[in-house]
Amino acid sequence: MKVKFFFFTLILLSHFAFTQEKTRIGCLKGMSSLVFCHFMDSEDYEFFTYDSARDLVSAMKGGEIDATNLPAFMAEKIEEKSQGRLVIPLITSTTDVKLVSNDENIHTFSDLLGKEVYLVKDSYEEYFFKELLKLSNVPIKTGESGVEVAYMASNAEITSSLIVGKITCAVLSEPYVSASLVNSYKNHISLDFQDEYVKIYGNRRIVPKSVLLVLTQYRDTRRKDYNKLLENIRNSISTINSHPNFTAKKAKKYKLDLPVTASVRSIKNSHFLYKENDENIHELLYNE
Predict the structure, then answer these.
(1) Could you report how far apart the first and last alpha carbons of the chain are, in Å?
(2) What is the model's pTM?
(3) CB of 188 within 8 A of CB of 101?
(4) Strands 208-215 and 86-94: what pairing?
(5) Going along 154-252, which residue ranges are E strands?
(6) Tell me, what's the pLDDT at 287?
């Protein structure tokens, strides 16, 4: 009888292990998904890749995804509109936004007056750039008395245009900053946005670039899985920072679309960290 009960228990446990619900993670190709790359082969997770942030956010609002990693300014708005259904528990990277140009005379935002600066519309880079221009009292308009903001469809297109000298100035973050520098000796970093932020506020408060966004229900009802996810992200970020070459190979394996010529350099120059969100993201962004 004991033997039968033992085998019955084993069958039940095996069935539970086999049917145990996986954590569903939504990914966009690029740097934001690097925080997951060192546990993407784990059987505890199911990863879904989306072509656009809009599709990913829609899936998350519909309860199809448990967690994702998104630009901070985007995640903050989504969290606010979710009425408590979504929450930001972690900051996963700080800003690496730069103004890249082939103009040696750009040292401040006021040096951009009368110039055309390229970026992607509705991007993290646009959001941060326009905020810093406003804080620096530099107007956005055409002509010599303002900065003209121009748009291209993608950061890849902007980077290519910088490399061949088709455009002079662009606002980029990694991996495109590194790609633009590696492939053209004329390009350089004219402005580091974190440094410019510090000049305005006189402190070293971090400016978040990406944050983890999770379903509140997942956090509250699957606490063990949630804590394990945070632990895996912490370990993954540690590995990213200590082993960029290994991380670049992982990014290639999982087809995260980092530029081949600059993947290791861009990982080294990215600012990944694990910081539990004990402050409001908007306050961290602009010190308000």
Answers:
(1) 69
(2) 0.83
(3) yes
(4) antiparallel
(5) 169-172, 188-192, 208-215
(6) 45
